[in-house]
Amino acid sequence: MRDSFINALNTQKVTHDWVTSISENLVNVYTPGYRERKFTFKTFLNGSVGDDTLRNVGQGKSSPGTSDENIYLEGSGYFVLRNDKGRIVYTRLGEFKFDGDGVYRSSDGQAVQGYILNDKGEIMNGAKPIDAESFVDTAFDGGAASVPTTNIKLWIDPSNGKYLGKYEEFEFKDDGILYGKADGGKIKTPLYKVAIINFHNPQKLYQVADGQYIETEESGKPVVGRGEVRGGLIELSNVDFDANTAYYQQAQVQLEMANQLIKSHKQLLQNIVAMLE
Questions:
Q1: 106 & 219 share domain
Q2: Number of structural domains found in the chain
Q3: Which residues 6+ apart lie within 8 Å of 145 measured at CB?
Q4: Domain of residue 212, residue span
Q5: What is the separation of C-alpha 117 from the centre of its chain, rounded to a whole number of angstroms?
Q6: Are residues 162 and 219 in the same domain?
């Protein structure tokens, strides 16, 4: 069994890591799309060590976005982004806009993924439509990965300024469907369904950039996400400010105790060395 000096050193190191995790959370309280870091401990007879840091996958509050083109996911899952090289990442931050070519993109230029719909609102898998029930059933077979996604694109006809040449405006509805609207809203046609993907263990997704994640072996394969998509909103951080403030105070007390114990052991060791001289 390790002595109290070694335990104090272990506690000091782990508490420093804990404070770093808490500090990151507090700094990002107002960062849209930020996922709170959760720090836990394993306790042994010979000391304490920190677990892997997990991400809080809970819902963040909604807030007005920077554009009507922004979207907010209320529910479980992630939006899907694809870069120019075909790499897929997942995010909760729906701060998206249509670029000059009509492609729906994230703020860093990645293309938002969706499913092409027919005029009945059915997802098209190649030339064949899939009804909503069949699509959701794919969750039991590893998700919607078997249904190809595509870039969401609303090309604007330069001759009349209309989306896809015939729609005057667009609208995102709660089911994540993007509609083209014409004739003052009397005509409303489903065009795309925003892809929402979830994982059996989303806490084990790996963060590759701020608010962007990739799947891992521990996260499991993608499955169908569930939730409502609301236009004109974005998701704020899901950090619990009061809880993290309390954790920070606890960590400071724990760190002070560990430092004091280390100091006492050093003094005792110095006294013993002095007696031996």
A1: yes
A2: 2
A3: 221, 222
A4: 63-235
A5: 26
A6: yes
